[in-house]
Design goal:
heterodimer; A: 112 residues; mainly beta; six-stranded mixed beta sheet; five-stranded antiparallel beta sheet; 0% helix; B: 115 residues; four-stranded antiparallel beta sheet; globular
């Protein structure tokens, strides 16, 4: 079945450093790759997404890259701030079943 | 105005009881979902409805029964609650059919604790 692997499961960085979270997916028909941020006790919220016709997308300090051949995509956060601390979920969707499959999450801790 | 609202926010109950969680969205979206987030934070799709029709029904015990009276509402009823049902249940909605290609808007979650 469809599967999305996400690494690392936890990531601790110093304020101002960069953070990178990587995901791989199994369904080659997937064509939509969103990233959700979930702060402690809150709901997941979309922070950025990319579709398969694009290799990279940037929004201020956040960027996502996609390698369709290798079936992996990554989230890059530059100049991290304490408010970036949260659980980040990657997801892959748009395959035959049109389901969105979430990765297992990465707990990012930004140390001030 | 809250876009996707679900009630109750917290639910503590005994094993064997039956409980319901309600969800409403005022975004005019066509599709609604129930996701389960367990203690390890895994987010798993349970059900998806498009215009009141069941589209996705994952491998969920039949003790879980969703109901969509109209496209703005999706309720979840759980019979004979078990300890393993303890989790946070998130309602979500999207424009158009399918979470596979559309942005999900999540509710605030309903934390269910089964004792």
């Amino acid at each position: 079945g469809e599967n999305v692997e996400q690494h690392p499961s936890t990531l601790s960085v110093q304020e101002g450093d960069s953070a990178v979270i990587k995901c791989t997916y199994s369904d080659s028909a997937s064509n939509y790759f969103p990233w959700y941020k979930q702060e402690l006790g809150k709901r997941p919220q979309l922070i950025i997404d990319i579709r398969s016709n694009v290799g990279e997308k940037k929004d201020q300090r956040i960027a996502v890259t996609l390698n369709k051949t290798a079936k992996h995509f990554s989230l890059h956060i530059t100049e991290t701030q304490p408010e970036d601390s949260a659980v980040y979920f990657c997801a892959a969707g748009g395959g035959a079943t049109n389901k969105l499959i979430f990765g297992t999450g990465t707990l990012l801790a930004v140390q001030p | 105005d809250t876009a996707v609202s679900q009630t109750p926010k917290y639910l503590v109950t005994q094993m064997g009881n039956d409980k319901s969680i309600k969800c409403e969205q005022n975004l005019g979206h066509d599709t609604m979902y129930w996701y389960k987030q367990d203690s390890k934070k895994f987010l798993k799709i349970m059900f998806s409805y498009n215009n009141k029709e069941l589209i996705i029904n994952e491998t969920v015990p039949n003790r879980f029964s969703p109901k969509s009276p109209d496209k703005a509402h999706l309720n979840l009823h759980i019979n004979s609650l078990e300890l393993g049902d303890s989790a946070v249940y998130f309602c979500a909605s999207s424009q158009g059919w399918g979470a596979g290609a559309n942005v999900l808007t999540f509710g605030a979650g309903s934390r269910l604790t089964v004792l």
